[in-house]
């Protein structure tokens, strides 16, 4: 009788590791950061003129109320989309949920960085510098302008969703841009504030999210690769 010998488990080829992020998302995110950074640099010299044209024009138009609503509450829509995605991945795909949780840490990191930068740069709000009527009331003194916190969080949440579900881009990308643009239209930020905020949110969330996820996966692999005492007694090793 012929018996078939199986190769030892140690010699079997390892199963391919699952890529945490779809290939197209990371290059697109990094290209977006470069484009937004360039936009911020080009907009800065003409910041007051751009602000007066956008914010002043909006305040005099029929879109004033809508711009104010999006500027004030639009971020909640991105939060809702992210929360729904978190619930879906928790129920259907724990690997993607772990990645979304890691990018959540990145979102918090991006917000923290934006707050620190504000305190260091202390750029005055445009509604205190340019004498025009604005849709929203100008924030209190000491609430600095650069970079935009709303835009930072919007960019961070958008890229977090795209890391997990790239097909959501027709929803989350316009939402993030709308929130950022509305902050200028409503009169509380310069164009370079929101462009910088979006870039900061995307960049920090990418770096921190991927770093946290990689660290957690490495620890998990090490813990599962250790042989249990029962297995050692069975094999005599």
TrEMBL record:
Indicate how the chain sits in the lipid bilayer. Answer: Multi-pass membrane protein
Q: Where is this region: Disordered?
A: 1-20
The compartments listed are: Cell membrane
Which species is the source of this protein? Promicromonospora umidemergens
**What is the top-level taxon of the source organism?**
Bacteria
Could you tell me the keywords of this UniProt record?
Cell membrane, Hydrolase, Membrane, Transmembrane, Transmembrane helix
- The name under which this protein is listed is Phosphatidic acid phosphatase type 2/haloperoxidase domain-containing protein
Supply the InterPro entries for this chain.
PAP2/HPO, PAP2/HPO_sf
Against Pfam families, the record matches this protein to:
PAP2 (PF01569)
Q: Does the keyword Methyltransferase apply?
A: no
Transmembrane stretches in the record are 21-44, 64-88, 197-216
Entry-linked Gene3D superfamilies: Phosphatidic acid phosphatase type 2/haloperoxidase
SMART domains in UniProt: acidPPc (SM00014)
Q: Which parts of the sequence belong to the Phosphatidic acid phosphatase type 2/haloperoxidase domain? A: 98-209
